[in-house]
């Protein structure tokens, strides 16, 4: 093989390596962008749902009403008009989040004689972990609604 052939073969190999490196980097970047977009969407959903729950439980004066407000809010947000055993289980578990938020509303940030104040963040994290472990998908996927376009009809 001539020196020129070796030189051209080396350039060809470098070209292939650069192409492979760029392709690999683009795939890694796309995966990272998708992961960040998912994390952002979950953060927005989490903040929005908890703000709605705080508002829904703001005027209630009992734990039972707080749990009911949490159930009503979650049903509305997810479009759950009918019950099923799976939905009932989710609502029952979500009530713990509503109760923690309700209790935290009146609690002082300092530990009192009854121990530390309720932690809504821990209740939400426990709920999310329970959902993920039992459903094998994040809770926030429930909010991925496909809304088909409907024709605008003017009468």
Task: Please tell me about this protein's structure.
The structure is a single chain. This protein is mainly α. The protein has a domain of 101 residues. Helices cover 70% and strands 0% of the residues. It has four helices and no strands. Helix 2 packs across helix 3 and helix 3 packs antiparallel against helix 4. The longest helix has 54 residues. The radius of gyration is 26 Å and the shape is elongated. The N and C termini lie far apart (81 Å).
Highlighted features:
single chain; 155 residues; mainly alpha; 4 helices; 70% helix; elongated
Uncertain regions spanning at least 5 consecutive residues: none
Order of helices and strands: HHHH
Helix proportion: 55-70%
Q: Compute the gyration radius: what is it?
A: 26 Å
Q: What is the approximate shape?
A: elongated
Structural class: mainly alpha
End-to-end gap: 81 Å
The helix tally amounts to 4
Total strands = 0
The percentage of residues in β strands lies in under 5%
Main beta sheet: strand number and arrangement? none
Average pLDDT works out at 90
Task: Set out the fold topology.
Layout: H1 3-56, H2 63-78, H3 85-106, H4 120-135
Produce a short descriptive summary.
It contains four helices and no strands. With 155 residues, it is mostly helical.
